Structure formats: structure tokens, C-alpha cells
Structure prediction request, 341 residues.
Amino acid sequence: MDVKDFYYDLPQELIAQDPLEDRASSRLLVLDKKTGEMEHRSFRDILTYLKSGDCLVINDTKVIPARLIGSREETGAKIEVLLLKRREKDVWETLVKPGKKARVGTVIHFGDGLLTGTVTDVVEEGNRLIRFSYEGIFEEVLDRLGQMPLPPYITHQLKDKNRYQTVYAKHEGSAAAPTAGLHFTQELLREIEEKGVRIARITLHVGLGTFRPVKVENVQDHHMHSEYYEISPEAAEIINQTKKNGGRIICVGTTSCRTIESAADENGVLNPGNGWTDIFIYPGYRFKILDCLITNFHLPESTLVMLVSALAGREHILNAYEEAIRQRYRFFSFGDAMFIK
Prediction:
């Protein structure tokens, strides 16, 4: 399976640069995964497609302001650090730009010395381990100094940090938002529950591995980075009970999908617990739990396009993307949504 099979041509002006003022007013392309038929709706109309007895699975991870701008102690040169994952209490795996200026032993100061980092090791992909020192509580220092780690294709400044968080974000730890969830408001979630749809909250801390370009020609040769997840006994019970009663499991976002598919056994039973997953879902994969998916439009040749192609078929997905381009949908993190039913 060639990575080029998942390419499509996207006009630059369709990449959404800013979130809509009203989260739920984005457009919704509804795709029937069996027939390939499409409908054009507003995201609020998702209510029409959810039935009593279904289960909506949401990822309640919270994005941390993981982008830090500092200066090297030796030269004062500007250096950018992106926190990827916590290895120990004050040791983080990071992405540093420019990397060649961050050799082991390099000391970096942030915010006039409020935070200091020392590079202790170089690990896979050239990522750096940095040990931080500071006064007080790390999260409070980070909240003061850090910026939201927006994807590189978003060039506008984000006026309100909360617009890169879902309204149900709770557990801090992500380097990127589970963006399919950005369309929901508290009011819409209430209406969904009032309709008899149960909501299961799981956590997967999104790393940048999900968004890394596939650099190999053969899809099967690509290796995903691992991400930490937690599934409570309560969430597992809701999902398993829904399946048992014949309801549908509808995941909000590829992160929710990857979490439950990672923790499911061969009989489609979800196990509670926590751990790390590097699951890579591409065409040929047989879904164990998921029935439907609410998702955004993803980058060409990305692992996320491969995941949705595994669910709905590559031709159906590429046809839907072509239609979305014709209809001038907004793409990527702050863009419009798709419901694969």
C-alpha cells in the first residue's frame, strides 16, 4: 500500500486559520461508509444522526501551553522548545528548534529565569530530554510562560487560549488538541444526553506523532509514536453495555477511536486501565468496537486519512474530500467536520 494512494490536492485558502465564533456552527459533511452517499449539514444537526441507546466517546485530555520560547545561556540566541511528553517529574521529552544548537549540557532560560532547562540527552528522532528547574509549581509557571502549540499550518495568532481546548477538557497532558471535539458546546452535549445518548469520557494525551508525516513509501513500514491513555471502569462499562444492548459506539475524533481500539480484546470487549498505545489503523484493519466517527478533514498522506479510509474505504473518503473542496469546506484543526455513519 503506497502512501501516495492517500494524496489529494488542497487549495491553501481552505486551511482554516481561525476558529469560528460559535463552535457548533461549523459545517458537517455526512458520509455513509457503505454507499459513499453524502449530505451537507450544519454541525448542530449531529443530533439528527444520534439515536437513543447510542454511546458518544469523547477524549477529555487538556492541551498544555507546551510551546516555550527561550534563550541559550551561552549566547543569548533564541531557541524554541515544544514539550512532547513527561518522562519524570521535571524531565520532559521535547522537540527543540534549532536542534543543532541544543547539545547535551546546553542550558536554556525562559521568562527572565523563571524557568531554566538543561538538555540531558538526545533520543529518537533527535528529540531532546530536558530537565527543568523553577520555583513553585511547574504547571503554573508553564501557564504563565507557555503558548498553545498550534500546528505549523496555522499562521494566525490565537486570541483566546481556550479556543484550542474542547469544552470538556479536563486532564492536562496533550501537545495538540483532539480537534473533532472543538465543535461541541455544553448546550449541544446536554441535548445529546437528553436524547438518550450516553457519553463515555476517556483520556488520550495527544502527542505530535499522530501528525508526523509518513516518510516511508510503503504505509505498513510507518511506525507510530506511543501516546498515554486512561479508560475508567465507568467508561468501559458504558461502552460495553451499549454494545451489548445493540447501540452504536460513536467516537469523537481519531484519538478516541485509537484509544478504545487499543484497549479492546478480540471479542470487542473494552478493558479499563491505562497504558501506552502506538496503534496504527490503515485500510485492512477490522474495527473491534467503533461503529461511527465524528472527525475533521485531515492532511494529505497522513496517518489520519489512512484511519478514516480504513473505516469508510479509500475511494469513499477521497471522493468526500473532493466534494468538500468543491463545496469550499474549511480544512484541518479549526475547520469543518465530517460524520462517517
Summary: The two ends are 25 Å apart (CA to CA). The mean pLDDT is 94.
